[in-house]
Amino acid sequence: MRELAQRLWAASPCSSDPPSPSAPLVNERLRRSLIQLAGTDGFQSLLRRSIALAGAEVPTLRVVNVSSDGRIHGIEQLVANALTAEQAAIAVTTHMLGLLVTFIGEPLTYSVVRDACPVSAGDSSQKRGCS
C-alpha cells in the first residue's frame, strides 16, 4: 500500500509545487472517487481514521482535523516542511488504502484507485492529470 500511496503522491501536482496551507493530504481525484463510493460522511470517517493511524508515524498530524466537506485544517506545521508534508500525505494515503482493502477488498480498492488516477497503476515517473 505504501508503494501505491507514493505513486499517488508522485502523480499529484502538489508533490512538485511548494506546499500551501490548503495542500491536500489525499490526492484530490482519489478524494472525489471515495466520496462517490462512500459518501461525504464515509470519506470523512475514513480520513479521520487514516490521520489517527498515520499520527504514529508523523506526530505533527495529531494537530490536524477534518472539516465537514472532507478537507484538512490545521496543517500549517506540515507545509512549513515539504518533507514532512510528503511523509504525512504518504502515511495518510497508505492507511486509507489499507482501510479500504479491509472494508471493500483489494480488487475493488485497486479499481477505485485506477479509476481515480490511471497514472498510479502505471509508471510513477509520469506526472499527468492526477490532482
Which descriptors apply to this entry?
131 residues; mainly alpha; globular; disordered C terminus
- Overall geometric form: globular
Mean pLDDT: 76
Low-confidence stretches: 15-23, 121-129
SSE string = HHEEHHH
Characterization of this structure:
It contains five helices and two strands. 57% of the residues lie in helices and 3% in strands. Helix 2 (28-54) packs across helix 5. It has a two-stranded antiparallel ribbon. By secondary structure, the protein is mostly helical. It has one domain (2-121). The chain is globular.
Task: Tell me briefly what this model is.
This protein has 131 residues and is mostly helical. 57% of the residues lie in helices and 3% in strands. A two-stranded antiparallel ribbon has the order 1-2.
What does the secondary structure layout of this molecule look like, with pairings?
Layout: H1 2-11, H2 28-54, E1 65-66, E2 72-73, H3 76-79, H4 82-104, H5 106-116
Antiparallel strand pairs: 1-2
Helix pairs in contact: 1-4, 2-4, 2-5, 4-5
